[in-house]
Amino acid sequence: MTSSSNVASRTGLAAITNGHGGFVLDFIKIRAPIGDEVRVALGASGICHTDYASLSWDGPLVVGHEGAGWVEAIGPDVHDLKIGDPVLLNWAIPCGHCKRCDTGHANICERSHGIDPETLGTSRAGHDHTIWNGSAIQRSFNLGTFSEFTLVRRSALTPILSGIPVEQACILGCGVMTGVGSVLNIAQPSPGDIVAIVGCGGVGLSVVQGARLAGASRIIAIDVRQDSLDRAKVMGATDLLLADASDTNHDQLSSQIKSMTNGRGVDFAFEATGVAALAFLPLRLVRNGGMAVQVSGAQGAVEVPMPLFWWDKRYVTPLYGGCNPERDFPRLMRWAVEGALDLSSMISKTYHLENLAMAIDDMLAGRTAKGVVIFENGRAHV
Ligand SMILES: [Zn+2]
Ligand SMILES: [Zn+2]
Fold first, then answer.
1. How far is the CA of 114 from the centre of ligand 1 (A)?
2. Quick one: which ligand is closest to 324's CA?
3. What's the gap in Å between 331 CA and the centre of ligand 2?
4. What is d(CA 211, CA 198) in angstroms, rounded to the nearest whole number?
5. pTM (predicted TM-score)
6. Cα(174) to centroid of ligand 1, in Å?
């Protein structure tokens, strides 16, 4: 299938970081797709804490990794998508051939990458896919979704089910997948189990939804902000615990959890704060043989007393909720269409790209669960 737009490169506005904590909005040029590549006109891009972190990665770099939009041009080897199809972008782009992909663990693909020749393993046109100021630049997770256009491999895309607007679909591509997947793919609680979640931002709220979908009998949401707990209640939390910021050693919190569970502790506890000092807190909340799940990707050094691991407790740090895109994205979309997965209540606020700095500030201050940047002209580009 071909399109007249295949022959030309496109120019669009994008957020580009210099790697020193800031970014600029400027025009970039995206070349036409070749081989199995697809060019996407972005419709929406969610804002994630990783986007803030990426402002300090090696630049220049197009920011953003949680996006959805419409197929705008396709390479000659793509036969199952057509121009105008709504698609979700996936940042852990599987190669489809390595040992991890073969065993269903595409999220930790051994050569997960984009369209650069050295990562694809085949000859390609080089780094010229994204040009800024006359030079080739990289994109966050080979996507760069705070941009009007992006060029990706077909394997980075999942068609969006009708009935899900792109501004809701985009958050499936990182936050929702990470939270729901960490529950259903990794922890796998049984109906009736008791689950606790520390931190009720976008990922934590998705953990709450995952626990509800799994049939947990009690879902204990823990946060220092009441408005975050109120959102968790909407997502299905059965118990809300407003954490006391002065409880720095968490003695009070762990004894509260014990008293709520007949002295046992919960079956599964998730950490979704991104605060390194809280990374091992779930081990204090789970029963003997329970599972502590650190989903926030917290970084930094932490000192841990080893007895926290005793009594058959397990500690796991799933990447991207164990995302297997072929299995998980259609399933999440089906639940969204059926109303079992609430995407709209996750989105606190939408922004134009020009207000990306405000969107990041709102996220860092905890004012939003998920903020989403809308590209109003996205559909018109196709
Ligand atoms: Zn692979
Ligand atoms: Zn993310």
1. 12
2. 1
3. 19
4. 13
5. 0.94
6. 19
Backbone angles phi, psi at 56, to 5 degrees: -110, 10
CATH for 132 = 3.90.180.10
Q: How far apart are CA 315 and CA 293, in angstroms?
A: 6
Query: What separation in Å is there between the alpha carbon of 178 and the centre of ligand 2?
Result: 8
CA of 52 to the centre of ligand 2 (A): 10
Residue 358 and residue 211 share a domain: no
Assess whether 118 and 262 both reside in one domain: no
Residue 301: domain span: 175-320
Tens digit of each residue's pLDDT (9 = 90 or more) over 199-251: 999 999 999 999 999 999 999 999 999 999 999 999 999 999 999 989 989 99
Number of structural domains found in the chain: 2
Proximal ligand: closest to the CA of 98: 1
- 330 domain-assigned: no
**CA 204 to ligand 2 centroid distance, Å:** 13
Q: Does residue 332 fall inside a structural domain?
A: no
Q: Which ligand lies nearest the alpha carbon of 171?
A: 2
Helices (H), the chain: 49-54, 99-102, 117-120, 166-169, 175-181, 202-214, 226-235, 251-260, 281-285, 325-338, 356-364
Tell how far the Cα of 325 is from the centroid of ligand 1, in angstroms. 12
Residues 46 and 91 in one domain: yes
